[in-house]
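REQUEST FORM: STRUCTURE PREDICTION
Request ID: SP-0412
Submitted by: Lab K.M.
Chain count: 1
Length (residues): 212
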Amino acid sequence: MRTAGHREGVKRVREVIKACGDLGVEVVTFFAFSSENWRRPKSEIKILMGFLEQFLKKEIKEFLKSNIRLIVVGRSDPISKELQQKIREAEFKTRNNSALTVVLALNYGSRQEIVDAAKSFAADVLKGRTRPEALTESLFSEYLYTKDIPDPDLMIRTSGEMRISNFLLWQLSYAELYFPKVYWPDFKKADLEEAIVEFNKRERRFGKIDAE
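STATUS: Completed
RESULT:
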């Protein structure tokens, strides 16, 4: 059942967070729930939100103990007010932690993020806070949900699916993409290590050539 897969998926989140800490990863982002996932059956959505609530309740103590910061990105509505409050509390409690930053993309869609950023910039122009000609890539990034988070170096998409699925479209411009066949509920520390080994074999030129 998908719900059993989701339950195992939560366990993998815990395992990968610990592995990231052991491996020296500074920021890890999980695509927890997309803006398109609201189309799923209501019963499944309720279970997923319940898993998230349990995760926040159980893991925050461990986050504080292990010096881990939590950031949640995405639109708040239509997430319940109670869950929104628990998310804000978890972010506040861990705000000064620095060993590892864990980002949950919740009710997140990258196209929606870019549209929201454009609206925010336009609103600042109308209020006289900035000018249209002042817009640069770096300035636009400040209007994204991820404004306080560095762009990812590596994107791992499990289950052998060869697509990004509306995830961090702006931020992934120069990320390395890795598509293992293993499904997320089966993704273990060894799989993460294998992804990092593959990442370290790649040459990242960012548009330059070897001689530059």
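NOTES: The helical segments are 2-23, 42-65, 81-93, 110-126, 137-141, 189-201.
Reviewed by: T.R.
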